[in-house]
Each structure stands twice: as C-alpha cells, then as structure tokens.
Amino acid sequence: MKKNHLPRMPTPGIALPSDSSYLDLRRVFWASGVCPKDNNDAIGLAVVRTTVNVTFVQFVVNVYQQTINQIKLSMGITQITQYDIHPPENPDIEIKNPRLIGGSSQIPNVFQSGLPSTFYPTFYDINLHISENPLSHSDIPQYFVNGTVVITLKDVENDTDTITFNALRLQNLTATMSNDGINITKGPYAIDANEGIYAVKLDSKLVAGVEYKLHLSYTTVTNNGFRGFYTSHYKTAKRHLDAYTISTQFEPRYARTLFPCFDEPRFRAQFMFTVTHPKNMKAVSNMPALPSSVEGNEGEMTVTEFEPTPPIPSYTVALAIGDFESSEARFTEKGTLIQIHGRREYMRDTEMALNYAEGCLDLLQNLFHVEYPLSKLDLTGITKFTGAMENIGNVFVSEKLIFLNNRYADKSAYDNALVTIAHEFSHQWFGNIVTPIDWSQAFMSEGFATFMSYYIMNELKNDTNDLNLKFAMNPQRQGMEVDSFPTHPVEVVEKNLFEHHAIFDPIIYGKACSIFNMVRGVVGDRIFFNALQKYLEDNKNGHAHWKKLTAAIQNGVINSDLEKINFTELLEGWITTPGYPVIKVSRNGTHYTLKAEPFRLIKDGVVDSRWPLGKSWPVPIWFRRSSNLSKVEFLIMPPNAEITFNVKNETDLIFVNTENYGFYRVHYETPSLAQTTTQAIRNDTTGHLAGARLRTCLDLFPLFYAGHIDSAQFFNTLELFRKDSVTTYHAILSVEIQKMLQRIGDTPGYGDLKKYLKGFLSDLVHNGIPNSATTKFSQKILNDIECAEGKLLCKGTALQMFVEGVYKVCKGVQELVDCVIVPIADRERVYCEAAKSGKKYYDYITRHYVASQNPFEKVRLLQGIACTKDSETVETLFNTITTPNDDIHDTNRAAVFNVLFANNPSTVKKMFIAKASEIADAFPDLFGEFATTALTARDDVDEVPEFLKNNADLATKYEYIFRKLQNTNKFELRFKKDLLPTLKPTNVTVARHKKDFKSVSCGPFHVC
Ligand SMILES: [Zn+2]
C-alpha cells in the first residue's frame, strides 16, 4: 500500500454527518398527558436524529422512579416495571500530586500498589554498563549489568523518613542521598523480596517542597526468558554465526529487574539512559540517541546516550541492544520519523510494515488533537518476542509480525502486521499519553487499542460500512465466548503476578472494546469521538479511569436529549460485573415482552467470590420492526425490568440488537428463532436486517449450548443458513461446526450427525462465492476435519505435496523457505503429515528446523515435528518443550505443546501430571497454558480437582486458571451427557452434496 493510496481522515468529527438535527420529543409526551410536565424525575425522553440518508430514531427512556411502572408513551411502549434506582456512588478521593492528574482531579481510591504515595519521582538518570559475563555456564551468553541510578524525588510529605521503591533480583544494591545533612541509617532492605519492594531509612524527616536525589548502584544479569531484560539468540543468514539481542519487556512489573524504580503506572517520570555496551552492537530506546563515543578497553565498548523521555510510566521504558540495521526513514505528514530496526537480512522486507506504520500514524495524528509527543516512533523486531509492546517511541514487536515477504508470509500475516501496528500505535494515546492509574484499568488501554485497531483497519482499507459487523464477528464474539462462564469483570484487581498475566484475556480486550462500542451506539459517532477527544485532552500526561471517560461522555451530552442518561450507572454494571445477558423476546398476539437474564453455559460453575454473579445490567436495546424496517428504535431497559409494547398486527415482527452494538445475545421465544431468522433472510434485500441475520447466526450455537433452544429449533434455524446467498457468516458457522465435531469426537453412535454436519459444511463451500476468502476458509476447515479423521485421501495428498513440493525441489538448499513450492497455508499440515509418516521425513524436517533462520517457516516446521507419533520422540520432544533450553523459543513452547498433545493426548497428559511442579518452576508464565491444554478433559470432571488435591501449591498460585479449566470441563461433560443425545438431525436432509464432498481432495499445489 503506497502512501498516496491511503485515504485521509477528516479531523476530528468522524463518520457521522455533521448536520444531524435533534428534536426534543418531551413536548410530545407532555402534550399527550403521559408525563407530569413539572416532574423531571419521571419523564420519557426521546430523540429523533436525522442523518443524510437514513432516519435514525433513538428512543431513550429513562425513568427515575420505581413507582412508575405504567407509562404509556405514544411511541408504543406500554409498560416498564421494577427500575431500581441507586443514587450514584461517590467513592472518589482527591489526589494531591497535580502531575498525576489530567483535568479531573477526582479518581477513585483503587490503588493496589505496594508503594506509598508519600513522594513522586520526577527524573531517572540511568547509567548501565553491559558486558558479556565470562562466568556464564549457559549456551546463550549471559550479559552482566553494572548499574547506577540517580532518582530525583519531589512532592515529599513532611513527616516521611523512609523511601520505599521497587527492585527485583538486583544484587549488591547500595544507596546514598546527595542532599547535604541527610544520611541513610538503614538499608536498602527488603520489605517484600518476592514482589520486589525495598526501602531506605533516613536520619531525618524530609521536607515538603524540597527536591531530593537518591543514588543507587547495583549489578544484575540478563535472563533467557522473555520478560525483564532478556537475551534472544539467532544465527545470521549468510555465515550462520551466532547473534544475540538483549531487550526489555517491562509490562506490567519488570522495570524493577533492570533498575531500581517506582514501578507503578501512576508514577510518571522522565528517564534518561546512558548505556555502555559491546561495540559491535547497536542500542535503541524510547528516545533518539545522542552522538556516541568510544571508551576504554582498546575501543571494545561503545557509549550510547539517549535524550531524556517526557514523563512516562516505567512499564513503557524500553532498551534493546543487538546487531541492528535500520530501514529507510519515513516521515508522517506531521513530521514524525518512522523507522524499523532489526537484524540485517530483514531490512529488505520492511516496505509493507513501513507503509502500514506511516498510514496508521498519519491517521491517528489527524484524528486526535492531542499531539504525539516524540519526534520519532520506531518499530524494533525482536527474535524471541511473541506479540508486541507499545513502548513509547519504540514499539518492540515479534519479527514474525513486521517483516513481510511473499515467500513466507501469506495474507493473514499481512493483516496481522497491520492490526498489530494499529493496536500498538493506538496505545501511544490510549496507554502512553493517558496511562491506567493502576492495573485495574488495564482495559482502558487494551479495550481502546482493540477498538482503534478495527477502526483504523476500516479507514485504511476504505471499508467503513461494516465496522459494526467486524466488531460483532471478532472482539465481541471472542469476549462473549470467554464471558459465557462465570469469569472476571473488565475492571479487575488481580491477586498476584500470575493472575495478572492470566487476566489479559478477551475480557480485557474484546469485552472492553465491545462495551465502548455499545456506548458509541448509544450516543452516536459525533458525540462519542468528541468525548474521546476531550478525555484525551483532559487527561493528557495523566491517568486513565473509566469514570473519567463517563465524565467526558456525560459532558458531551449536556444540552442534548441524551443528558438524562446516567452514563456512570450505565457503564458500572458492564465494567464491574462478570457475564452478560440474553434478551428473551416473546410475543402474545400483538403484544411483545422483552426480559434480560444472565447468559450462562453452565449453571453450577466454580465462581470467584470477589465477583458474585446475578447482578443485572441496564441494557441498551436497539430494535427494528418488520412494518418499518428502515427505522431503528432505541431504549434503555433498566436492570431487572420487563418491557412490553405493541406491534401493528400479528405479522409485524421485531428484531432485537439489529445493529450489534449490544453486548448480549437475543433469544426469540415466540415467535421462534427460526421464524424470525427466516424473515431476516427474506427481508434482507434492503440490508436493514443484515445485522439481525448476523445476530441469529452468532447466537445460534451458544443458545443451544446454554439450553435456551432445543435440538429441533437448533437444526431448523441452522438449515436456514445452508443456502443463504449472503456468505459473510459462513466463517462463523464453519468454526462452530468444527468445534461441535471436535466435541462429538469419536463418541460411538453419532456417525449420522457427523455426516450431516460435514455435509452442511460442504454445502457452505458449494453455495459460497467461488474463491472468496470465506469459501476458502470453510473449505480449509472441511479439509482439516477430513485430515484429522485420517482419511487416506488427505494423508496421501499431503504426503505427496511434501515429496513433490519440498523434498524433491529443496535438495541442497539450506533454508526451506527459499525453495518450498507448497502454498503457505498448507505447509504446516504438509510438514505434519510428513513427520508422522516415519523417520526419514521426520529427520529431514528436524534438520531443516535446526538450520532455518526464518521465524515463520521455523514455527511451521516445529509444529510439523510435534505431530510425531513415535513414542520415544514424543518423550524427547516433551522434555525439550518443558525444560529451559535454547532449542525452542519460549514463545513457541505452548503452541508446540498443543500439537504434541493433540497427537498423543494420553501420553502427554501423563507426562505433564508427573512433571507439573517442575514445569511451573521452570516456566511460571507458561504453566497456565500448558495446564489448560493438558487438563482440558472431554469426559472427566473429577480430573482437575484430583490434580489440585495433589498439587495444593499450584492450586493456590494458578487459582484463576484452574477455575476456568473446571468450568470448561463441566461444560464439556454436560455437552456429552445432556446435549449430544438430543442432537438428532432426523427431520433434515443429510449431506446433499455427497459427490462434491468426496472431491474435496485436490492436486498437490492447490489450496483446497
Ligand atoms: Zn495492547
């Protein structure tokens, strides 16, 4: 994508036409006599908004008195019951330090930090001397760090004589004060060595208004993991020499492992690095480097000095040292320099990522009035990293995500690159400019970065029409899937560091993003984006809290007809409560009733006592009537309310959550789901019900699993999608059918059902648009199922592809990625089948895995290797995965473990249980993923409790993981016991395209 092809954003009133006009309908109600004119507590409020082409009616009902349960409004709503009104809580406290605050000084008292707020750091002068440790015994060189830090402290409280700070795994820690007449009498001493909390005691009390300087010196070493200050290893492409990168990953609490600091997001300070490092390596950081000089040891070391950062939180501080080259320089319209750093051989593959980066930053800089604060924004490729980290001024990112070349990256890799860059660049505003006040507000960064990444994708691809469909199919779907079990709210105060890593899940990303989008639906784009703008301006260089966001939105609706909505109340239920509702829709004659109840996949889930279930939500309801499809009606259904209203006649149907803004499912009781879906599909010529059709598609399987609809209703509705001409939703159905088939597994007696489901998939492929992405996706799933079932045809084809497309054509070539002619999407499967087929090809693939330097192909080869069924090899591989070493990057361990388990479940489970404690010690951060893979039982719910009985320590430490695991297992058992026996597609036609289904196999080099 070239720069001049990228669409430009208008500033900043996005998407919504500016000529929206509002008509206060209160007068209508007053005139009709249903509302007492003088009683503002009991009015109905309605808004009519006219946009360019569509008449968009938002009908907002906000009732403030519980006693009012019969308001007859001229818009057709006849009854509202039981609205519990709570006066807005006000737990807010005032924060003293003005630098903590942007705009509003009111933030809630939810700090869970180990540090007191008796003073604030303003400046860190950090000096690091980094050299190879000659005493290291590891294969990977360990680097030795000799550090000194001078921390300037301000805003000291009068009566303090103790300075508490963070330091973790730092040796030889000593401290002095540079202020005359103040001496350290004790320390540094550990308050909590495990959490990294230290203190020094002074001989006199500190005085408010005076600036103090604390000097600390220490030593530490690099680690081989991927957090803190760690080493990555790779071999150079040309001469196969060993090369290393040392880099930081500080989020959430690892800055304290490289230098003593105040390691909480609420402490924003300036950081300045002076780094002495081996001369053959280049150092990059948040800020540009100053001209460097050579020092001592016959010129073996280089000193790189960086400009000081603006005030930033410690978790976004970054430093990387390696054999880096830099790409060409690009400049955004506003003059910000963009560059990519990474290993030499990838510099020719930076073109697309640079285009994406430039497009994203141009868009963001034009979108927000709050300026990006630095002169540059780099991307640095790190070999061992999995994802990406939004370090201010220098985003660290997995090499796989930014170096793109058609030899090894397919379309999904390119899309991933764009999403990743959009996400991390959005964090420069949501996270870096406005930083979570504490980790309970992490969703304010992740939710918005997710939201903005979809928004940016749409803008850059000039694809603005279906943003909501994309939200519904991706973050909303993922959020709902995880939130279907009793889980944690988006605002979560975690118990320990392990839980902290575990909660960065689709709740923090997908659900938070969907809640923000729901608010966008309520207020419209103009108010929503203006409020975001205001929120960023007010809190610039300050801190994020959801109450500040609601304040900005509340402010944005003043003098509009939406001002009666209490946005704090509206958001509180969604942000502080786990779960989400299902809206029950039923009708009796012309009378419709809407009710909300919690949606649960299992009734007897293991719950976290911190967040009791059963709380209900104020639910924004969007709906359309078949008698007037172009009109969207809107109201807020109060918690525990039941809403009834009339429709024109018996054939007038209503469709709920048609815009998919709502984070809830919809269950049509009467008339049935199938009846409503039929209408949605038939009436879709105008496009007004596209969202309603998507909703029924998204909700179909979950409604069946949760017991809202029975098997007959399920199949009848599913059948409606078989020949649907709109294929957008086929991908969702394909994935759901695949999951259902996996759940059925090899349970005897379900041959017909499996045949039916595969026939259905085959029909989706058949009726889809030929060669479209969706059709290819469904075809791939069908193929995977065939292969998983070990159909000879598939095995033969994959093996043939391996021989013809890899083995024969890659003779004498060292790097497979340079010669393989198998389509990228098929390579993993092809390597897998070859590895399974016997020693000859297994050895061949292993050899190439060891030699390969391409991170894309290396992972594919590794996944292939893990398909082996040879028991001796399985054991060796298991030990390689679960023991610290340099043969597999830590970031790939969990994925490879998955494949090994999938191919050898009972053996791997046994080995895992025997070695669990040892694995937890070696890989505390990965243990949860290993356990989830190995202990997800399809038919035994007692397995996990049994395991926990024998591993009490692990049970406490990874409580959150095991709770999730037990709930999943309960659901799987319920599926087998209660749901599966009812799944009999007796009245529906079975596999109509048998012939075509067979012919799914295809020639060696076609994507099939
Ligand atoms: Zn993020």
UniProtKB/TrEMBL annotation:
This is Aminopeptidase. Its cofactor is Zn(2+). The keyword Metal-binding applies. Binds 1 zinc ion per subunit. Keywords: Hydrolase, Metal-binding, Metalloprotease, Protease, Zinc. It comes from Panagrellus redivivus. The active site is at residue 424. Residues 121-315 form the Aminopeptidase N-like N-terminal domain. PANTHER family: AMINOPEPTIDASE, PROTEASE M1 ZINC METALLOPROTEASE. Zn(2+) binds at residues 423, 427, 446.
